Amino acid sequence: MKTMLKLAAIACGVMTMACKTQTTVGDFATYPEYKKNDLGLTYTPEKSTLRLWAPTAESVTLRTYAEGVGGEALETVAMTKSTKGTWVVELEGDRKGQFYTYQVTTDGKTLAETPGVWNKAVGVNGVRAAIIDLADTNPEGWAEDKHIEVKNYTDIVIYEMHHRDFSIAANSGVKNKGKFLALTEEGTLTPEGLASGIDHLKELGITHIHILPSYDYGSVDEAHLENNTYNWGYDPKNYNAPEGGYSTDPFTPEVRIREMKQMVQALHNAGIGVIMDVVYNHTFVNDGSNFSLTVPGYYYRQTEDGDYSNASGCGNETASERPMVRRYFVESVKYWAQEFHIDGFRFDLMAIHDIETMNLIRSELDKISPSIFVYGEGWMASSTPLPAEQQASKHNGKKFPRIAVFSDDVRDGLRGEWMSAGEGGFATGKVTNRQKESIKFGVVGATQHPQVNYEAVNYSSAPYANDPIEVINYVSCHDDECLRDKIDAVAKDANPVQRKRMNLLAQTIVMTSQGVPFIFCGEELYRTKGHIRNTYNLPDEINRIDWSHKAKYNDVFTYYKELIRLRRSHPAFRMATNAEVIQNLLFHDSPEGTVMYTLNGAAVGDQWSEILVIYNGNREGVDMEFPMGDWNIVCEDGKMQLDAPRPFTGGSFYVHGTSAIVAYK
Ligand code: CA
After folding, report:
1. Phi, psi torsion values for 416, nearest 5 degrees
2. Distance CA 23, CA 296 (A)
3. In angstroms, what CA-CA distances link 393 with 279, 406, 453?
4. Cβ atoms within 10 Å of 111's Cβ, excluding its own
5. What does the DSSP 8-state code read for residue 183?
6. What are the tens digits of pLDDT across the range 614-642?
7. If you average pLDDT over residues 227-242, what whole number do you get?
8. Cα(170) to centroid(ligand 1), Å
């Protein structure tokens, strides 16, 4: 079986053992649904009201505290059973600044205290929820802050980053290293005097950053940040509160919220959108999660034996098809979009979620802003009880329109299969027909095109995008080796100059293909992760961006920047519909190991009437035939020359090894 399983199991870094759930399976359908919007805290200066959905509870105790951790309870109150499985309590007076927990007794057992699942503010390490007034967390000018507007999702250029990777290095020039605030600092410089931080992003020209998990996760001890623990954060604890480790003060609940908003605001002011990586598919722990401590069993899928099923590979998987789970995910996403002005969501292991939920998320986000982009990993890490036809997998991609999936087909076609450490791909000189058709699959944005042989594509035998807006083309992300390290691993026989050309060729294919391009933070600085494959919890020394690379590998940076400028200046590379691609993209016969096609720019409003693109994956140069005409070559032999194109009248042409040609007339 062709597999597209990804190493998210390892990526999440959680070693939870599967164990029995605390409730018998099968009666969840009888749980009442609560549809009003007042779950969690409703704060006013006169009183604070708390409502918890816990239909199987026999009693619920609420405790208030002066601190986010430690100390005796200020008061212990029995909550009152209310409608549709909810429990409610009203706390008189202004409770701002206090913390609280719920404690549920069910099936004769009293469970551990929990901040509940609907909290929006927490104390250190997310142990207790906090009573705050969200209005206090808005930075100055927040009311004027708006989502970044996007005409077509194919106009987006995504830059995936981890907060620590980006700014933690001593030479980042940034003061708030590894924090949300790092992205608010303008005018920062590398030691060689080049732009770093947010100015670097502006210079590079990407349109959106995709931040690795930034909700409250469990693997970093926020009380001891001086330990500089590193983790990607694929271990969710509180879904609706920001991670404390990225704030300057994880003890004061408002601070992480305000600082994350400041980050969004600064990026928006720079014209850059913010996409959050969301991991609703599993939680850090099983029986001890806020879900389990509120309604045992309900939020997770079970195996026939009543164990936690484990499609995430992290010990459990959530059950989006159950009404109150679905509602929770939808409301959570809406909250981030509305309260934090988040411009997009990347769903980890999206195939674990059911299609109906993803479609509901899309339609609810459309009501807030159709510019909000949604995409995800169209696979899972292990098996699930959710029927295949309900899974939001890439193979079902056409059933959830306007939601994109990652193309592992083009990724591995370019760099080599992720399962085979030593195998290369098209860009590294492995130019079989399978690689070639996988590249063509990427070029057409995973849509239907009469000149692609889908049977030969890496892991897919059919297009999975209705339109190019529904696929993410990429060659690297946080998972597995970064591009430079992968090329080092698979092209040991190539010299350093050739390896750099492979890197540039791979990204040229990503950036000129139809679909939504995505690059991993630091590839433009020729980053390395020490040739280590999985770095989810390794020290900063491995994961950090070394900003001295910007001067050292300025040729790489300049090439990436110009490549992005090429794409953003020319709508022919960004067609929004399958019909446009079929009508305006034509492949031409070309020698083995090469792909050649033309784009009808005039038909899609491009100032270039016709564009010719050639990718040569062979390490040797190839003689090819250009169509006749007055061409201007803007990319050749591993160099971009947008402002000084070289004229060429067509005919016989030498395409250098491991390089791309882009020409127009
Ligand atoms: Ca945390």
Report:
1. 115, 155
2. 6
3. 15, 10, 21
4. 19
5. G
6. 999 999 999 999 999 999 999 999 999 99
7. 97
8. 24
Residues involved in catalysis: 348, 377
Q: Which domains, from first to last, does the chain contain?
A: 11-137 (2.60.40.10), 152-514+522-552 (3.20.20.80), 578-664 (2.60.40.1180)
What spacing in Å lies between the alpha carbon of 201 and ligand 1's midpoint? Answer: 27
- CB atoms near residue 388 (< 10 Å): 10
**Tokens of residue 423, six digits:** 């195998």
In this predicted model, what pLDDT tens digit does every residue of 562-578 receive, in sequence order?
999 999 999 999 999 99
Chain center to CA of 325: 21
| Cα pseudo-dihedral 282, 286, 287, 289, rounded to 10 | -50
Q: Are 621 and 627 in contact (CB under 8 A)?
A: no
What is the pLDDT averaged over residues 353-365? Answer: 98
Instruction: Determine the distance separating the centroid of ligand 1 and the alpha carbon of 234, expressed in angstroms.
Output: 11
User: Residue 160: what pLDDT?
Assistant: 98
Distances (CA, A) of 102 to 62, 77, 443, 447: 5, 10, 53, 49
Whether residue 397 is predicted with pLDDT greater than 50 in this model: the reply is yes
Please give the Cα distance from 61 to 76 (Å, whole number). 7
Q: Which residues contact 557 (CB under 8 A, 6 or more apart)?
A: 204, 524, 525, 526, 550
Q: Ligand 1 centroid to 291 CA: how many Å? A: 16
What is the per-residue pLDDT for 56? Answer: 96
Determine the distance separating the centroid of ligand 1 and the alpha carbon of 39, expressed in angstroms.
22
Q: How far is the CA of 179 from the centre of ligand 1 (A)?
A: 13
Q: How far is the CA of 604 from the centre of ligand 1 (A)?
A: 47
- pLDDT at residue 26, as a whole number: 54
Q: Please state the rounded mean pLDDT for residues 368-397.
A: 98
Query: 438 C-alpha to center of ligand 1: Å?
Result: 40
Sorted by sequence, the CB contacts under 8 Å of residue 52 that are 6+ apart come out as: 39, 40, 60, 79, 86, 87, 88, 102, 116, 118, 294
How many Å apart are CA 133 and CA 137, to the nearest integer? 8
